[in-house]
Amino acid sequence: MEKKAVLLHLVCGVLAVFSVAVVKAEDPYKFYTWTVTYGTRSPLGVPQQVILINGQFPGPRLDVVTNDNIILNLINKLDQPFLLTWNGIKQRKNSWQDGVLGTNCAIPPNSNYTYKFQAKDQIGSFTYFPSTQLHRAAGAFGGINIYERPRIPIPFPNPDGDFSLVVGDWYNTSHKELQQTLDSGKSLPFPAGVLINGQTSNTFSGDQGKTYMFRISNVGLSTSLNFRIQGHSLKLVEVEGSHTIQNTYDSLDVHVGQSVAVLVTLNQPPKDYYIVASTRFTKQVLTATSALHYTNSHTPVSGPVPAGPTYQIHWSVKQARTFRWNLTASAARPNPQGSYHYGKITPTKTILLANSAPMINEKQRYAFNRVSYVNPDTPLKLADYFNISGVYSSDSIQTVPSSGSAFVATPVVPTSLHDFLEIVFQNNENTLQSMHLDGYDFWVVGYGFGEWTPAKRKTYNLVDAVTRHTAQVYPNSWTTILVSLDNQGMWNLRSAIWERQYLGQQFYLRVWNPVRSLYTEYNIPSNALLCGKALGRHPLNDLEFFGV
């Protein structure tokens, strides 16, 4: 009894300290109500069903400041369960709010769920989109811009304006038909077009002599894009929350799931200029154009649309290697990015992941290390929390590729809080891959052709590799990332190419600490939706969470 009283005292003390910290921080709260509905739009000139948020296609842009608390009530008026995920938001200590099927029950039709998360220690350009089924093919995506706090310097003058461009490939086919195609064991057809902010044509206006930020995010399903502005240079300043060395480019490749921010100075004669997004590494090139309009212009866009890069893989790899971390710039915190010397840390584990496109039971599937993921009825995070066995396996996926037939499972890779991982993505296919990890950003330390071997470590950039949340892997090539597992939870590692994700190219990292503490992970939200084998379970309050 005495031991229990002491433990209760300690727990209360921890909660008191936590509460005081929250009160003292006074981080602002921002409240939103988003209603998700179907609507009819004609993005490519053909009327089709799309998914709207508050009547908007694409969805509303979220503009927040570092450490803002976001309280967002999502009301699902669709005829299917629905979730949004916050692409690149780290959800510190809070994988409960990640919005993927491994952490959350989908919101039933005519129901709601209130997301509660913080833009903790982040700055930069991000996105949100549906994580359920093929809803992403119908819309409900948008930009998230996290601005710096007062007195936190950024490594460039404040721009005179800020444009967010959500760009992606698009299908005229409904999301339900696309899902039926995948469920039948077939691949998706080639997209019908490319959209910029939900349209094939937009106008962005600015004053001659001024400098504007363009945030470009690829929210498409499958296709890499090249972005360029006729007659204007693109100065890269930020990649998914990472301030970069400010190199200047004529055009930039942006792969599925990625975001970049560039500064564009309107230093040309006053007229209108083409803004172009076109597909990369495709036999048929799809193009969307918009206009950069000088406010003192009386001349519309004219001449041929600026062509994209004629060189393919090698050109793109060479460009990717020029993306470097600005070591002296601060990010969301005042300390320089380069104060964390990632290259001097010895990895605790290496995971070598080979993607593949096997046929299983005569249907197309996708896999990592021969394992093709299937979603269980019970989210993995809930199974973990309630100690429900039989939902996932911790040993089905190996940390190195092996020979044999592919199979379906629900794999989780067990790791420990504060592990430092080396993850090598080995792509032996002839198509470009795009890989994403929730809950983290990571250092992209190497790209190389052919088969990865330990000797390739000599080519790694261990000084100023850029950090980001989504990395491309070129055909018949490898990409290596380093990631510091400082965020406890259940985190989805997946292909950002949605067909591959939907048909199994994903798994979860279980970042675990056996000591339960609010300092490392928050308790289950009081409004958490329960489903599957978690239905009827009793969530623990904070005292029960500590075992009191």
UniProtKB/TrEMBL annotation:
Residues annotated as domain Plastocyanin-like: 36-149, 163-296, 377-514
Pfam families: Cu-oxidase, Cu-oxidase_2, Cu-oxidase_3
Signal peptide (residue range): 1-25
Gene Ontology molecular functions: copper ion binding; oxidoreductase activity
Protein name, entry field: L-ascorbate oxidase homolog
Domain of life assignment: Eukaryota
Family: Belongs to the multicopper oxidase family.
Keyword tags: Glycoprotein, Signal
Membrane-spanning residues: none
